[in-house]
């Protein structure tokens, strides 16, 4: 039987997996962002709670781009280095709005159950 720590880690991983798109869309909705900057911003906004790896982030970005939620554009920086910035699309903005409503409803329902006193 897995230790409690292992079950918690697995559970947290599943919660993150289901929340990745909304988290990413939220950051990109503020301004166009490139991958490494996105990882740092998610960590900063979560006070260090989220530690995305490239192997998690880039497949999500590619999937969201394929689904039309974001658009990636290469930009040439001073010095000639190229970096791919991600922009939220109209479809992505609409999806983010729906996710925020769903998340608020979910959190309220979980809070109601967890904080309820037995009758």
Overall description:
The chain has helices spanning 4-30, 35-45, 54-66, 90-115; strands at residues 33-34, 70-76, 82-88. With 119 residues, the chain is α+β, with helices and mostly antiparallel strands. Strands 1-3-2 form a three-stranded antiparallel beta sheet. Helix 1 (4-30) packs antiparallel against helix 4 (90-115). The protein is elongated and about 65 Å long.
Unreliable stretches: none
Number of strands: 3
Shape: elongated
Distance between the termini: 34 Å
From the 3D coordinates, which CATH architecture would you assign?
Orthogonal Bundle
Tally of individual helices: 4
Helix-strand topology string: HEHHEEH
Q: What is the averaged pLDDT score?
A: 89
Per CATH, what is the topology?
Arc Repressor Mutant, subunit A
Largest sheet: 3 strands, antiparallel
Task: Round the Cα radius of gyration to an integer and report it.
Answer: 17 Å
How much of the sequence lies in strands comes to 5-15%
């Amino acid at each position: 039987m897995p230790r409690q720590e292992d079950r918690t880690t697995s559970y947290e991983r599943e919660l993150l997996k289901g929340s990745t798109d909304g988290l990413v869309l939220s950051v990109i909705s503020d301004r166009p962002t490139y991958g490494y900057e996105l990882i740092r911003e998610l960590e900063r906004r979560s006070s260090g709670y989220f530690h995305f790896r490239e192997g998690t982030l880039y497949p999500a970005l590619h999937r969201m781009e394929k689904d039309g939620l974001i658009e990636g554009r290469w930009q040439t920086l001073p010095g000639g280095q190229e970096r791919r910035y991600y922009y939220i699309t109209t479809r992505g903005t609409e999806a983010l709005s729906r996710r925020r409503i769903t998340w608020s409803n979910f959190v309220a329902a979980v809070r109601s159950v967890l904080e309820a006193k037995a009758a």
